[in-house]
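Key result, reporting period 2: structure in, sequence out.
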C-alpha cells in the first residue's frame, strides 16, 4: 500500500510538472493512507509496540504490575471492539456515498476503521490472555537500544 501511495504521488508530481492535472491521484493517495493508518495500528498492537506509558509498571510491585497489564490489555481490546462497532455504523452510512473523483463507494474507505478495529481486537486478545496468566507483554520484533549498538 505504501508503495502504491508513493507511485500515485510521484505520478501527481510528474503530471503537475507538465501542467496536466490528474484529479484522482490526491483522492487515491489519501484513501490508501487511511487504510495504512488503521492497518499499521493493528500491526503495532500485534507486536505490542504501540504507544505506551509504562512508567507506573516500572515502579510498582509485581501484583500491581499484573493488574496494570490486564487493564491496559482490556483497554486495547475494548478500543478495537469500539472501532469495530462504530466503524460498521459509519460504513453502513458511507455505502450510500461515492467519492468525488474516483467514483468509489465510500463504504470501502470507511470499512478501514472496522477492519482495523477487528484486527486490533484479534491481536489484543492474546496479550490479554498473557497478562491474565501473569506473563510479560513483550514487544515482538522491536529492537532494543542494546541490539542497535551491537549491530
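The corresponding designed sequence is given below.
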Amino acid at each position: 500500500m505504501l508503495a502504491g501511495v508513493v507511485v500515485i504521488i510521484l505520478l501527481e508530481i510528474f503530471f503537475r510538472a507538465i501542467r496536466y492535472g490528474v484529479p484522482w491521484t490526491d483522492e487515491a493517495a489519501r484513501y490508501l493512507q487511511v487504510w495504512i493508518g488503521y492497518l499499521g495500528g493493528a500491526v503495532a498492537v500485534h507486536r505490542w509496540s504501540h504507544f505506551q506509558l509504562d512508567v507506573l509498571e516500572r515502579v510498582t510491585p509485581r501484583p500491581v504490575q499484573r493488574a496494570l497489564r490486564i487493564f491496559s490489555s482490556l483497554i486495547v481490546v475494548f478500543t478495537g471492539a469500539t472501532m469495530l462497532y462504530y466503524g460498521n455504523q459509519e460504513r453502513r452510512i458511507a455505502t450510500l456515498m461515492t467519492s468525488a473523483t474516483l467514483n468509489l463507494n465510500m463504504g470501502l474507505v470507511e470499512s478501514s476503521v472496522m477492519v482495523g478495529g477487528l484486527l486490533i481486537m484479534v491481536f489484543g486478545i492474546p496479550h490479554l490472555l498473557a497478562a491474565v496468566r501473569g506473563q510479560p507483554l513483550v514487544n515482538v520484533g522491536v529492537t532494543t537500544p542494546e541490539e542497535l549498538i551491537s549491530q
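Helices lie at 2-17, 24-47, 55-59, 62-94, 106-132, 145-150. Residues 14 and 148 are 38 Å apart (CA to CA). This case is discussed further under Risks and Mitigation.
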